[in-house]
Amino acid sequence: MHPDLNYHRSVLEKISPHIHRTPVLTSSTLNAEFNAEFFFKAEHLQRMGAFKMRGATHAILQLPADAVEKGVCTHSSGNHGQAVALAARTLGIPCSVIVPKNAPKSKVEAMEGYGAKLIYCEATQADREATAADFQDRTGAYFIHPSNDEDVIWGQGTAALELMEDVHDLDILLVAVGGGGLLAGTCLAAVAMNPSIDIYAGEPELADDAKRSLQAGEIIPARASTTVADGLRTGLGSVNFPVIKKHVRDILTVSDPQIIEATRWTWERMKQVIEPSAGVPLAVVRAYPELFQHKRVGIILCGGNTDLSHLPF
Amino acid sequence: MHPDLNYHRSVLEKISPHIHRTPVLTSSTLNAEFNAEFFFKAEHLQRMGAFKMRGATHAILQLPADAVEKGVCTHSSGNHGQAVALAARTLGIPCSVIVPKNAPKSKVEAMEGYGAKLIYCEATQADREATAADFQDRTGAYFIHPSNDEDVIWGQGTAALELMEDVHDLDILLVAVGGGGLLAGTCLAAVAMNPSIDIYAGEPELADDAKRSLQAGEIIPARASTTVADGLRTGLGSVNFPVIKKHVRDILTVSDPQIIEATRWTWERMKQVIEPSAGVPLAVVRAYPELFQHKRVGIILCGGNTDLSHLPF
C-alpha cells in the first residue's frame, strides 16, 4: 500500500454519500494547559458512533456485483459489527454477523436494529472464526475484516483526510491503536497530505502488543486483555503492520486510570460522550506533555459507544 | 421591551468577542422518528457550559465605568453564578458570589476557579437575599439578576438569534423555562427575526409555575421543587413575564421520568452531555409529537453542567 492523494480523495468521494463529515472540536482550556493547539476529529458523531463506518462502507462498495445476492458477513460484537450491519443496510446488501453467545445485549440489539442477521457461536476466537468460515463456505458471503483489509484501511484513512482538509498545518497526528486499521489508514492519508507530519499512536499499557511489535520489528500477537479501552484489545495484522512500521514515529502507552481520567475530562469539559478507547490520545498528551508543546495536534476521537449503565468512573 | 432586530444584532456583536458561537446539531434518527426536522442549538458547548454566559456578559458590558472598582455580585450556586464569575473575569471586573453553605463542592470550586470571591450564607432564599443586599450596601457592587433583568434577557436572546441566522425557515422554537430569562430573550429575538414563528416552552411537571402563571395571567410564585431539572426550579419575574405572556403560544409540561429519558437519549445517541434541564424540550417532543410533525423545530440545549458521579439514570 503506497500513499497517493488522488486515490485517498476518490475513496472519500465514494463513501461520502453514506457517511457524516464529522466536525472538528477544540478546547481553549486544553490548549492553554498544554501550550499547544488540539483539533479533535469527532468520529464519535459518525453514523453508528464510530470511525468504523468509513472502512465498512468502503469495503462493501468495492465488492463485486454479486454481493447483492451473496451478502457480507463478519464476526464482531463491537463497533465493527455495527458498522458492517449499518453500511450493508445503507447499500442494500444482506448482512450476517457471527456473535459470541455472551455478547452484550445492547450491542446485539444495535446490530439487529441495523437489520443484520445474527448467528450465535461460542465465546472463543476459534469458534468465532470457524463459524464464520463455515458460514462463508455455505453462503458465499463476503467476509469484511475489521482492520487487516486494504479497502477497510483506505476507508478509515478518510477521517484523517477530512481533518487535514479542514485544519491546515498540523504538526502531529495522534491516534489510538487496536487492530491497526485506523492507524494504518491515518498514516497513508496523512503522509499523502503532508509527508513531514509526525504520526504517534496511543495504546493501553494493558494491551501494548502494537508497541512491542514496533520494537521487535514483527507482529507480536495480542494477549487477552481487560483494559477499559475495549476497542483496543485486538492485535495488528499483516496488511496494516508494514504501513505502521514505516510511518509511525512512536507508540506511547498509558495506564487504565490515565485513560479513564482523560475520558471523564472529555465528558465533563468538552461535554462529549466518548468511549474509553477514544480517551487514549488525550491520556497520552497528559502523560507525555513535552512532545506536544507549541505543536498543532490532530486527534481522532474514534468512537462514542459506551454503556451508560456501566460507566468506568 | 419591544423587539427590534437591529438592537438584537448589536447585542450579539457586543458580546461576540467573549462568547462562543455554538454549533447547531441534528439527528437524522430523531427526524425520521418524528417526521420533523430538529435543530439543536448547542449551548452546553458555550463557555462555562450554559447559555447563561450570554446574559451575564451583556449585563456586565452595560454597567457604568465604575463597575471596574465596585465590582459585580450575584447569589447563585448554579450556572448563573459561574457565568457571572467567568464573564466578570473575562471583562476585568471584580466579582463576588453569595453562596449557600450547602452548595455542591464542584460548583463552588468552579466559581473559585473563575476567580470569584465567595461569601457564604445560610441555605435559605431569605438569607441569600439579605446577605446580597448587605454586601451591595457595603461595597456598591452591581447586582446581576439571573433572569429578571432586561440586559440579561437581551443577552440570552442571542442564542435564538444565532440559531435563526444559521437555520432558516424554522416553524417552531422550543425552549425550557425556569426563571424565564432565556424564554423571554428567545421570544424577543425570534419574533424580531420572524413574527410568525411559534414559540413553545417546556417545563417540569414538578415545577410548573410558569404554566400556571400563563393560565392565570399573573405570576404564580414557584414552590420548592425537587425536579431533576434543577436549573428550572426558579420562578418568573416582572420583567420577563409580560414578554412571555405576549409571545409564548403554550407551555407544555413533562414528568421527571420523561426528562430523564430524553436526557439519556441525548447522551446515548447524540453523544452530548447535557444537564436534565436541557432534556426538557426533547421530552416535550416525545410527549406531544403531533405538534411537531412536518415542522422545522429549533431547540435550545441550555446547558451541560452535571455531576458525572451522580447521574439521574
TrEMBL record, chains A, B:
Domain of life, per lineage: Bacteria
This protein's UniProt keywords: Lyase, Pyridoxal phosphate
GO molecular function: ATP binding; L-serine ammonia-lyase activity; magnesium ion binding; pyridoxal phosphate binding; serine racemase activity; threonine racemase activity
Any GO BP annotation: D-serine biosynthetic process
Obligatory cofactor(s): pyridoxal 5'-phosphate
Residues in Tryptophan synthase beta chain-like PALP domain copies: 15-303
CDD domains, per database record: Thr-dehyd
Protein name: Pyridoxal-phosphate dependent enzyme
